[in-house]
Amino acid sequence: MISAQTAITKTRRDLALGAVLRWVMLVAAAIAIFAQPLLDGASFSAVAVLLAVGAVWLVLSFRSVRGSRMAADSSSLIAAGQYDLAEEHIAEALGSFSIFRTVKLTSLHHLAVLRHAQNRWQESAMLCRALLKQQAGAAGGGLDHSSRLILAESLIELGDLNGAYESLIRLYDQRLSLREALNLMAVQLDYLSRIGAWETMLASVMTKVQMAELLPTLQAARVQALLALAAKKTNRTDWLDWLRRRVELMADVQKLCTDRPMLWDVWRS
Q1: Distance, CA of 97 to CA of 79 (rounded, Å)
Q2: pLDDT, position 137
C-alpha cells in the first residue's frame, strides 16, 4: 500500500528532476544552434547534439506516456470498485519517471481519489493539499477544481468545517463543468447541514432536486435526504413528505442513515 507521504515526497523529487532535465536539454539545444557559427571548422557538430537531445526527449516522452496510460486506467478501476488493482496501477505510475508535470500530478490526484473512495479521509486531504500546493501559480483547471472538492469533503468527514469552507469558497467564482457543479452542490449541502443552515439549504430547492437527478443514485439520494432534513427542521411538511418518498424509492434508507446518522431524524416519528 502506498503511503501518502511517500507518494508526495517522490512526486516532488520527480517534478524537480524533470524541471532540471527540461532546462538542460533546452540549454544544450540552444548552445548547439548558436555556437555552431562561432566554432565553424572546429570538431563540433550541432546536428549531432540536436539529435542526441531529440533522442533523449523521445525516450523520456515514451516513458511518460506509459505512466499517463497507467494513471488513466486507475480512474476507471476506482469507479468499478477494484481498489487493489487501481492501487497497483497508481503505484507503478508514481514509481516511473516522467518528464512532464501533468503526468505526475495526475497520478497523485488519482491516489487522492482512491483514498477518498476508501474513506481514508486524512490521507486524501493530505494528498489534495500537496497537489494544490504544487499547482499554485499554475493553471490548475479541472484537476484543481476536483482536488478542492475532494479536500472539502474529506475535511467535512474529519470535522474540520473551517477548512472545508475555505476550500469551497475558492470554487464559487470559478468556471466549473457540469459534473463539478453537481459535486459542489452535494458537498455544499453536506457542509450546510453540519452548521445547521437549513433555510440556505432550501433556497431554490426544486433546482437542487433537478440537479440531484443527474448524480449517481446513492449521491442523489443523499442530497435529497439532506434537503428533506432541512424541510423537517423548518417545518415544511409538504417538502418533507415528498422528498422522503423519493429517497425511499432510490436507496436503502438504513445504509443512507448509517453513513449520515443525522438523517435518522427524517424517518423518526
Answers
A1: 26
A2: 46
Name the phi and psi angles at 30, rounded to 5.
-65, -40
Most confidently predicted of 25-39, 90-104, 129-143:
90-104
pLDDT in tens, 59-84: 777 766 666 676 677 888 888 889 99
The C-alpha cell at 124 is 486524501
Tens-place pLDDT, residues 96-106: 777 778 888 88
Q: Are 118 and 83 in contact (CB under 8 A)?
A: yes
Give 41's DSSP letter: T
The owner of cell 501518502 is 4
Amino acid at 71: A
Write out the H or E segment, with its range, that includes residue 9: helix 4-35
Contact of 30 with 53, CB cutoff 8 Å:
no
Which amino acid would we find at residue 265? D
Q: Hey, where are the domains in the chain?
A: 177-269
- Alpha carbon 159 to its chain centroid, in Å, reads 20
